[in-house]
Amino acid sequence: MNPLLLLLVPPLSALLIAGWILFWTVVSQLRWSHFYRRIGEESPSLGSLGWLRFYIRTLEAALELIWWAFVHLFQDGLRRPSGPQTGPPVLCVHGFHMTGTSMWGIRRHLETRGRPTRAVFLGSPYQSAEVYAKPLARAMRDLQLHFRGEGFDVVAHSMGGLITRKVLAEDPDLAAGARRIVTLGSPHHGTGLLSWIRFGPVYQMMSLESDFIRELPDFRESAPAAQVTTVATEQDLVVYPVSSCHLAGSREVTFEGLGHLGLLTEPEALAVVAEALPPTVQPDS
User: Fold this and answer.
1) CATH superfamily of 1-279
2) Where do the domains of the chain lie?
3) CA-CA-CA-CA torsion sign (72, 86, 122, 56)
4) pTM higher than 0.70, yes or no?
5) CB 228 within 8 A of CB 273
6) Is 17 exposed, middle or buried (0-12, 13-18, 19+ CB in 10 A)?
């Protein structure tokens, strides 16, 4: 092969990946805008410069997640902080079309604050909630075994919030161990994105018409002792409308200008997660 071509392969690959991400962001925004027009509401706008920043931040978040997927593959297991432990372990639950590596930024942020963390791989996409619930329940039981009497906290992104609700609703012992729960962009009431897709397990689980969601207890019922924070962003092009991300009885946080992926990577989102999971033991005690 021509040496010049070898030098061009990495930049060309990066351009193709960036182009693909931007293409799907544009398509998603068109669907998002169409949904708001269809229900007779004005979509949350950012202005021209705001949308430009949004696209740049979305691209950066996507590339960072891709990097983590390669660098931190097979690192979902328990990680302990290098310094004193300041609270119970945190179980990090990924969303649809992702893996445990997508939670790496949150894990690293919490570990620097003294929290043990563990991620979980729920399984490949396009499966039922029943399939996804099994590895999550096993991970919760493992944490209860290793940290007897301490309980555990949960940070769940997107679909992971629904699977967390399912597991806690079906296992009172696990629900009793859940102390604090943070969901990031989770379609607690479904998402308008699936108005374009009306078949399959994804539609059945996360559409606005989902019987699964209607019958799924919220955390007030399944884990009444847990403190719950639900986080959304007005420009979430995957889960919308924004009210779908919030649950009654939870502390609600809504960002402006972040995308669905930015909830996993942006400093302000990581700060909200850390604030929602405060230390139970001071580092110098």
Assistant:
1) Alpha/Beta hydrolase fold, catalytic domain (3.40.50.1820)
2) 1-279
3) negative
4) yes
5) no
6) middle
Q: Write out pLDDT tens, residues 36-94.
A: 999 999 999 899 999 999 999 999 999 999 999 999 999 999 999 999 999 999 999 99
* Helix-helix angle 104-111:267-276, to 10 degrees: 50
State both tokens at 11: 């930049």
Q: Which amino acid belongs to residue 101?
A: T
The amino acid occupying position 22 is: L
Predicted local distance difference test score (pLDDT) of residue 198: 76
Q: Which two tokens stand for residue 254?
A: 């809504």
- Hey, what amino acid is at 195? S
Residue 17 has pLDDT above 80, yes or no: no
Q: How many CB atoms lie within 10 A of CB 34?
A: 14
- Tell me the pLDDT tens digit for each residue of 197-213: 777 899 999 999 999 99
Question: Rounded to an integer, what is the distance from CA 217 to the centroid of its chain?
Answer: 19
> Residue 87 corresponds to which amino acid?
G
Tokens representing residue 31 in the block: 């669907």
